[in-house]
Amino acid sequence: MSHAERARAHMAKRDEYTDLLNRLDLGSKRSLSPSERKTEKELLGGIATADAAVKRHLEAAAAEERAMQATFPLQLMGTTRRHEPKEDRMTAAIPGELLARSLDIARGITTPSTGKAFSPEEMAKKLVDLLAPQSVVMASGVNRVQTNAETYSFPVIRSDFTAGFVGELDDLPTGGFGAEPLKVTPKKIAAADMLANELMDDGGSAFLDPVAKSLMRSLSLGFDREALLGTGANKGFVGIANTPGIQKHAVTGGFKDLDAFVAAFGKLEAVNSKATAVVMHPTTWADLMALREASGSLKPLLSESAGSPTAGVQRSILGVPVWISSFMPVTTVLAYEADQIFAVWRKDAGFQISDQFGFLKDGTAVRAIARAAIAVPNAAAVCKITISA
Asked: Phi/psi at 226 (nearest 5 deg)?
């Protein structure tokens, strides 16, 4: 049995203890009998033991995965950007665990003060950790900023310092530097629905995990749509493609070769930037894959130089990773330096659960809420390629 399977087994055991604890009728005003108090203590101890076991096996599973990545480094390919060290996966709960903890808090089984529940800040961080891989924009390598502030400010450098050679004890050159703040206000992204209590009680982690993943997938897709193409309308924020000041390159008649990408990458290089990510619609990528190396050849233009026409094509252009999003128009491609783009997330993201709204329907209301926005302080580090007939 793998460590992941053992973790799931202990989570199922935790659900069993929780169900037995619910049957003690802790919400009533009557006093518990000595035997009930003993049972309550044993069940709480069992829940704590199961939590510790889940964490231990998640740590072991994460260690195995890191060892596998070290053994097979090609699995790490896909981005040219060096990422900052991040929290080990062992410290990030799986989606179903986050939702289960929220359910326990809603039912009074545990509280943040007991150490068995996540604090709001921990919940927000873990939620974004789990949401990020499902978001094309986040996965492309943009910087992530978490804040408690309603509005976050970035310095926008308009001109650099003036440097020059000087003699000893001469006055140093001054002036030239210009900057102004770019203020970003994270906007609310939410998903909610009513779930039957029968499923919430009987499904356990096997049910809660896909529910949590579905909620987070909805948030990540909503974030991607706005982060790529948002205009600031409909209570959203301005996305990368509509940020004022980004560079543009026009293509007429569709892609016939990779010259448009050479030109776009060159424009980024001209302002001391470089392309580390390309985002396009799946159809656009399919059109590029249909290009052939030469007239009458079966070999795709995007194949490795010595590759076979039947070999797989790495999703990259001129060494720059390509990311696919159905939200991108087929007539638009974005090329950017991910280090110059910031995803700002408020620290109040998380799941919330309530049985009050659905009391008369024997249901439980579940919602996931996050507040986020995209900031591009250096707009010249983005180039939008537009395709016309």
From this structure: -75, -40
* Orientation of helix 95-106 relative to helix 204-229, angle to 10°: 110
Of 1-5, 126-130, 246-250, the one with minimum mean pLDDT is 126-130
∠ CA(337), CA(341), CA(345), 5° rounding? Answer: 150
Q: Are 200 and 217 in contact (CB under 8 A)?
A: no
DSSP three-state, residue 282 = helix
Residue of 308, 258, 268, 262 lying closest to 288 (CA atoms): 258
Query: What's the token pair of residue 167?
Result: 């003699």
Query: Would you place residue 341 in the very low, low, confident or very high pLDDT band (cuts 50, 70, 90)?
Result: very high
pTM of the predicted model as reported, rounded to 2 decimal places: 0.63
Q: How far apart are CA 207 and CA 209, in angstroms?
A: 6
For residues 243 and 294, the answer to whether their CB atoms sit within 8 Å is: no
| b/e 113-125 (16+ beta carbons within 10 angstroms → b) | eeebbbeeebbbb
Tell me how far apart the alpha carbons of residues 356 and 20 are, in angstroms, rounded to a whole number: 22
- Under the banding of pLDDT at 50, 70 and 90, the label for residue 78 is very low
